[in-house]
Design goal:
This protein is globular. Strand 9 (144-151) and strand 10 (159-167) form a beta hairpin. The chain contains two helices and eleven strands. The protein has one domain (25-180): Lipoprotein localisation LolA/LolB/LppX (outer membrane lipoprotein receptor (LolB), chain A). 8% of the residues lie in helices and 40% in strands. By secondary structure, the chain is mainly beta.
Length: 204
């Protein structure tokens, strides 16, 4: 997800339209949670496939905005401003950009996206945990993401996002673990601005 490589329509019958099957109860609960969360701030730890761990603060604001502010001393930033997702490396003064919709994170950033057609509830040993894998087989280049929730009556939709495992199209795996989650507080749009380190750069 965060590596540098990281990067329906149908004709209705005129007289009879078959109803789509109802999603599994847990999947419907996940969808309800995603719609109920307008903002979230949490501490995170990020582990890549080589075992390197970084920490920081994640700020999310739907639709389309997220920021991963790394711990002091890590000259990197990941931020989505509503339309594009950026990976900024201040050490080498490079910026990479992707459309938000081309990232596995798109499931977290669009509360109105219906995930029932390409999301699968994965079995877990703990009945308090809900795990859902999101993968669109028609767009394998978007990768896949497995979201992990804990059932919590006090959280939006009765679920608290605990983290996720993202696998991009190049099989780069990133694991995110969240803690100290705070939901639906005020988050200014200015939280998703960033300074371009390239020559002639500016604040976005």
């Amino acid at each position: 997800m965060f590596s540098r490589s990281f990067a329906l329509s149908a004709l209705a019958a005129p007289l009879l339209v078959a109803a789509a099957p109802a999603p599994a109860p847990e999947l419907a609960q996940v969808q309800a949670h995603l719609k109920a969360v307008t903002t979230m701030v949490a501490d995170f730890s990020q582990e890549d496939r080589n075992g390197r761990v970084l920490t920081g603060t994640m700020t999310l604001k739907r639709p389309g905005k997220i920021r991963f502010q790394y711990e002091k001393g890590v000259p990197q930033l990941i931020v989505a401003d509503g339309s594009s997702l950026y990976f900024i490396d201040y050490q080498v003064r490079q910026v990479q950009r992707w459309p938000v919709g081309n990232s596995p994170l798109r499931v977290l950033l669009d509360p109105n996206r219906d995930i029932s057609g390409y999301a699968t509830i994965k079995p877990t040993a703990d009945t308090r945990i809900v795990s859902v894998e999101v993968h669109d087989p028609k767009r394998p280049e978007f990768g896949r993401i497995t979201l992990v929730f804990q059932k919590d009556a006090a959280a939006p939709g009765g679920l608290k996002l605990q983290g996720w495992v993202a696998l991009d199209a190049q099989s780069n795996r990133t694991t995110i673990r969240l803690s100290n989650q705070r939901f639906n507080g005020a988050v200014a749009d200015s939280a998703f601005r960033w300074t371009d380190p390239r020559p002639q750069g500016r604040t976005h």
